[in-house]
Amino acid sequence: MFSISIIEDNISGSTQTQDVQDVTKLDSSQINHPDETSTGYTASIKGDVNNLNKLKVHDSLKTRSNNEEIKNDKEFNNSEKRGNTIKYWVAGVIWIGLSVALFFIHGKSSQDGDPYQGFKQYINYKARCDHIIQNVELFTRTLTVIGIVFLILQLYLIFIGNHGLFFVDDEEYPLEPQVFNDRDPNSNIITRSQINSHNYDKRKLSKISKSSLLPPDDSYDIITTDQLETPEHRELKNKGVCLICLESYDETHNHIVQLPCAHSFHYKCFVRLRKVKGNRTDFQRPSMICCICTLSLIKYHQYLVDYELDHKQVEFINK
């Protein structure tokens, strides 16, 4: 198209030049040769006719070229659309092929070699989900029923407990079984089994426990520092060790507490230990038992009282 425009410019330029030359020739012919004027004019008219014919030819060529370009563009667009359509079809066929292949592979790898096992599992998926939901709902209902029953039982136990229908007062009835004591009244020997099997009045034991932080005086002996120097207690001083602080008695100058079970402690350690859990008032609190063998000092005291025994004249056997 660029070449055609150049040709058109050249033709128009040459036409204008020819017209100027013809006019110049006409002027000169009119002046010098009046007879030749008609001949030159006729030739110029023929040149104009030829130029018009050339322009028509070029216009027809230009129109034909434009039509060919439009046709080529349409063919290119159509071919491009056909190519895209083919690509889409190929991609779809590949996707379907892969899906079918995976389906059969999954079916072959399933149990019993059933190639349709994967498809069956997919069909039964909703049924399995419904079954799981039903199981969860059943489990939730069961827990709800159990919780309601448990709550009712708790309320019932609280009700009968507050009204004295279920619980028993420890101070009203003895905790240990009633055993007849075969102790010889003339014997001065007391055993631990006799103390444990004796039938105590729990109210008396509780009263003694609440009356003091320390056990009764007749349930232990105090050995002073002066008594430790006597031959009777010299061995205890030289070899004895406080079972609370683990210090030997010969290194400290303190009174010693000796229990009926033969366990001994520094007096200050014994008092300090009695204050442990001092807010308790039952006869089994730490201040009323031996911290080594758990002998109940209150029961020991009450046993002496019940049988009217003097703690200085009895012999205790810790078994």
TrEMBL record:
Q: Does the keyword Protein biosynthesis apply?
A: no
User: Do the record's keywords include Cytoplasm?
Assistant: no
Q: From which residue to which does the signal peptide run?
A: none
Under the heading SMART domains, the entry gives: RING
Residues of the RING-type domain: 242-294
Q: Which UniProt keywords apply?
A: Membrane, Metal-binding, Transmembrane, Transmembrane helix, Zinc, Zinc-finger
- Segments spanning the bilayer are 88-106, 138-159
| One Pfam family cited in the UniProt record for this chain | zf-RING_2
Name this protein carries in UniProt:
RING finger protein
